[in-house]
Amino acid sequence: MVSNVRVAPIETPARLTERTKSQAVGNFLISSVVGSVAGSTGNAGNMQQMQANMEISRAFSENLSRTLPQNYAVESGRGVDLALAKKMSDYFDASTGALPKTQELYISVSAPLWELGYTSFLTSEDYNLSYGLNLNVQEKLNDQLNPVTAISCSGVAKETMPLEAWQADDYKNVNVAAEAIVNKCFTQFMTAMGLPVIDKSIDGSNQAQLQKTQAP
User: Fold this and answer.
1) From which domain of life does this come (predicted)?
2) Does pLDDT of 181 surpass 50?
């Protein structure tokens, strides 16, 4: 069967990033030390000059914080955008009558947010999985692509656990959570497009597979 809907391929799948406490501490210490050094280079012989030096120190610290990385890419747990794109492509390949034959659509999927981050710096050791998936739909008319709609699906996975538990077994828990997220966003996108969804995996029952066990 040939569908009149094309889902764009994804050359570079989204990579999981991690926003850890150790990064936050390191960025704070570096910013504070370098900012203090910058502020101490002036002459603090009077109160007005001292206030100016303090302002220099504060501004320098803020600028440095903006340039320091807030997260870094890891190699495992990637490809949530590719999984969603594949699911959508399979849907349209199997549902040739979902849209009028006279309508030719092009769909692209992206994942601007796919991150493990700490839930609280002081009161918890848990991390959560945040996601943001975007769907852009264009229609081909007179050999030109015209925007139809842009849909977003974002949130935080239901489960929280220590970073080591997310990382265990080559990020197995991330992969399991990703499956539920893909199903959820797929349903949301199809509903927004006014298309029927029949998928027994949508209920998110696979969440029970998540293993809250820390790596040794």
Assistant:
1) Bacteria
2) yes
